[in-house]
Amino acid sequence: MPAFPEAAARATRDARLRANLRHATHTIRDKRARAVAELADWEQLRAAGKAIKDHTLRRLDHYLVQVEEAVTAAGGTVHWAADAEEANRIVTALVRATGEHEVVKVKSMATQEIGLNEALAAEGITAYETDLAELIVQLGDDRPSHILVPAIHRNRGEIRRIFAERMAAWGRPAPEGLTDAPAELAEAARLHLREKFLRAEVAVSGANFIVAETGTLVVVESEGNGRMCLTLPRTLISVVGIEKVVPTWRDLEVFLQLLPRSSTAERMNPYTSLWTGTTAGDGPSAFHLVLLDNGRTAALADEVGRQTLRCIRCSACLNVCPVYERAGGHAYGSVYPGPIGAVLTPQLRGTAGAVEASLPFASSLCGACYEVCPVAIDIPEVLVHLREQVARRPGHRLERAAVAAAGYVLDRPALLAAAERALARSRRLHPRRLPGPGRAWTDTRDLPQVPAEPFRDWWRRNRA
């Protein structure tokens, strides 16, 4: 993927993409605002979610050990994965040990993060996505562009075409005469997926939360596909980021109020599935939990950036972001798009790459993301923090020199006053566009007009 400026420049020229995004994000955020307004104690819930997450992150080592002990006691097996390569190796080996060559999947951003589908395919194992939007993305040989609605960049006509042309290659074909009516599209997906649910012996999931005191995993979803994956197969493998832990069931209650209103604008999720280890005669007979680090420990060590690990993947920040609305999710070059992706991806992957170094600048710092975040992540603060890290890297000498020069002048009032007067007197000579590297900045912006005299001179003459 190219860096964000190049990818965004291409995306913003796609009129259909912008129309799809504008319609979808405005609809979701308006519904969310109405759902949140129903609760008089929303801000108290938000503060509680923040406090619980901060407490858990401070004692994450303790709670992760508690999770391992509880899951093991309930009949499950816990695996620890330091990075994506190790996680993929663990999951692939577990699937191969069953003798199966296909798995069904619950929507999981952690498995997208590590590229699990591609790793399984390299070993001759096919992973079938069962979330409706993820199915659309998979059939269309596409990439997700939104946390909650991965196919938000597609309209109904495009989805109908994808189903008609591609379903047969992956299993049951789309019905003859399929239209773009939502009910017909949903029914086509249901028929296509049902045979996979009934046939699959292995499922792969993520989890929205892990309750440390009992080792219980929680998945919330809206379609029922998750329930099918979590109950029908004989083997269940869950890949979960280490930050998804909450200490107790009482803590979980807070998030089961915050998440649905922030994501789907519902009072509660239609399907909330919970499982604890294995139970004879009920659900999978083998359960494996893969606890994934993959950069999270490094983010935890950053006193400013660690608040990003509070994220509960609700996507509210994407739906209010003016940059995301215009550029779309693919421009971020990561499975985590939007404002949260702009801070999470550089922390998980580092800022050495062109994509990662560009993401902290993919924001206007308007603060709308912070206002809607259900766990009060100050995304603008983290963006500025990451920009500082990027600016310290080699290759940013000009930027560092400019900041140093500005700091030198601002620390010396007499020099600042002289510079202001010089600028005012030479205002007729100022160019309308900046030269050199600054030219790109003025391609879409007007340089501010320099006043005829500095404010301090005006004040001295009129108010002294």
TrEMBL record:
SUPFAM superfamilies: 4Fe-4S ferredoxins, NagB/RpiA/CoA transferase-like. Residues 395-461 form the Lactate utilization protein B C-terminal domain. Keywords: 4Fe-4S, Electron transport, Iron, Iron-sulfur, Metal-binding, Repeat, Transport. The keyword Transmembrane does not apply. Residues 66-278 form the LUD domain. PANTHER family: LACTATE UTILIZATION PROTEIN B (PTHR47153:SF2). This is Lactate utilization protein B.
